[in-house]
Amino acid sequence: ELTFKNQLVEFVDTKWTYTPPKYWVSKSNYRFYAYSPQTSAAAIDQASGYISIPGIKTDGTDWMVARAGQKIKTLATGYTVEFTMQHILFKLEVRARVTDAVANDPGVVSVVMDKVQVGNFVSKGDFSQKFDYLPSGSEYASEWNLDDNEAKASFKNLKDNVLARTYTTLIDTMSVPQPMTDDMDLLVTYKMTFSDGRVEDYIFRNPLKSIFNVASEMDLLGGNSYRISLIIGPETITFDAGSEVWNEQFDSSEFIN
After folding, report:
1. How many CB atoms neighbour CB 95 within 10 A?
2. Is the pLDDT of residue 1 over 80?
């Protein structure tokens, strides 16, 4: 008999709460599993405790699972159920700044980033947990069935973002894990206004494989964070990109002349 079945637990005021309350039974064995956010489509395998979530879309929702769950053998009462939640999507950030040389140049009035677009990502997939730890390398692919029939996703920022010497985040999003493909790219347009009244427009477009310096294959892994840093200045265009576990960071820096 299940004590909980897809039970909603919410953080209210200062604690996690649910209703109606359930009570510990002494000298019983419990296994707890969790995911977030709640959906009626989710299923938990009773034997393994693994979680399946079909139809996950790239819509800004941060899907997480407690891969290892928690087992409790009650000898008394008053136990606390604790989970370590892990992201199953990958995070992507694009940010930009100007160099000190540009910021200190009296001849430059402003640098305005008016369009940033990174795209052509598979936007939907079914998740089926296979591991009680964060998978790496080729392992992640066995947990995902990607929907290639769904329209590809592109992430955009069309605001006029005035850049300074400190970074401005232009895109901060999430997507289903997938291989990096040749058609994934970054498009940037910006303008520089000068003290003599000139306004010059610039456009930059490059494949993600080039930005991340990928010779052949690279997977955008769930639970990983990817960052592209754009630096506007008089230097030669260069790249620096990467990925690490979400709690850390893998950076890509790019100088744009």
Report:
1. 20
2. no
